[in-house]
Design goal:
Elements (H helix, E strand, L loop, with lengths): L1 H35 L3 H5 L13 H8 L5 H32 L5 H10 L9 H10 L6 H5 L6 H12 L3 H9 L4 H9 L4 H16 L3 H6 L8 H6 L9 H11 L1 H21 L4
Helix pairs in contact: 1-14, 3-14, 4-8, 4-11, 9-10, 11-15
Amino acid sequence: MQRSGVDKTGSAIRYVVLIGGAVLFLLPFYLLVRNGLSTEQDITSPEWTLFPSSLQWSNVTELFQDPAVPMARSLVNSLVIAVVQTVGVLVISGLAGYGLARIPFRYANAVFYFIVATLLIPAAVTFVPSFVLVSTLGWVSTLRGLIVPGLFQAFATFLFRQYFLGFPRELEEAAQLDGTGYWGTFWRVVVPNSKGFVAAIGTITFIGSWNAFLWPLVIAPDQNAWTVQIALSTFLTAQTINLPQLFIAAAIAIGPLVVVFIFLQRWIVQGVERSGISE
């Protein structure tokens, strides 16, 4: 009986801690929605209220009707870029990681170490040469200029390689005995049995692509090529700060990420565990 009471007390403490942590993590989302549906006076008022005096649903309408900020177009651009880059990274980095892990050739380790070494180079250092290359190709302010440079990621290749090194060789050998080559083995055996890890890499890539700011800022000065992060930055300038529009736009912008994370969060943890990073 005493042991049961201790267990119940421990469970109650854990629940209290978890609930407190959940409240702290959800607080920023509440503030975004609360301030996004408020007036400028409610946001800046020294007297804090849990809810605004009146919900300003017109802020949402005004956001999408603002001619200076193409919010709808920016959301579509971000979605297209994030989806295409995610698919590209999964295919290209997945094939590269599998080749480095399974296809024997003399310089496999050298190529792998070179790819890992590129992770040490700050992204800001590559902006100028990347911009010159994209500008030479005539891709400035185009979706091609925003998408193509991000179709391959060294970090994703590293994760795929580490995962495939631990993939059961018996499954691949059974396919190769049937006359299937590396290409067929990868698509017919490896990928179907790696859905959890692929989903984890895809989730991380999608979130990173959606939140990208510096490269779109450099390469997309035209409004038609703006991403949602660039659109958000226009509400915060040195001259004016439109707080209600900034908050409601931020709340809408994180909506797709929240949906993706809710449905695929377990794959993120599983992907880190299987990649070997935790070792």
